[in-house]
Amino acid sequence: MENKEIQSKSFDFEYAGKPDYGFITVKIPSNQTLKVEASAMATMDTNIVMKTKLKGGFSRIFQGESLFINEFKAQNSSGELGIAPASPGDVEHVYLNNEAIYLQSSAFVASGTNVEAKTKFQGLVKGFFSGESLFLIKCVGEGDLWFNSYGGIIPIDVEDDYVVDTGHIVAFTDGLDYSIKSVGGYKSLFFSGEGLVCKFSGKGKVWIQTRKVKSFAWWVHPFRRKKSKD
What we know:
By secondary structure, this protein is mainly beta. It has helices spanning 124-130, 185-192, 213-220, and strands spanning 4-7, 12-16, 23-28, 33-37, 41-44, 48-54, 68-74, 79-83, 91-104, 108-112, 115-121, 135-148, 153-158, 161-165, 169-173, 177-182, 196-201, 204-209.
């Protein structure tokens, strides 16, 4: 697949490997800084220096993720940074204009320094019964933001109400209200593979992923290697 070069208001960047194994190459202007999720850096020019900072406090421990976001600064001249997200899937970019967007806890990839990424507690009911993390990542400010998915990413404009399986949600815009509900009753919840969904209300945008991790785990389960009995 051909690389796709894009110009944004802050950073020029290029995609490769979309939508299966998305890779991002960002050109960092001289003496500017890009924030990147820990361990996502794949390549960089020699004039780029890295600094590690604690982000999100102890709340991120409960997400099962790293506690750190790395900052990459291009010294004296511009430089290119190659970013490889952990999940095998697509990558997406939005430019926030003093707006907010919510990401699932593992979706954050990178952002400009004027975009603040902080955890938001969903509440016990939404968190435990959604089957996902108890925390979302709220990204707010002005600048570039990149996020990734497991599988491809599909953006959906929500005008009133819209329902998405909780395992397929990647991101959604601020202003959308959401609630967790079951579909089909308890039998569907435990035996059909369906059951818990997120109902969005209002006007905004939702990004969904074309695959979900739990379904893949169920699919490979019969093929796992079993220990032989001595």
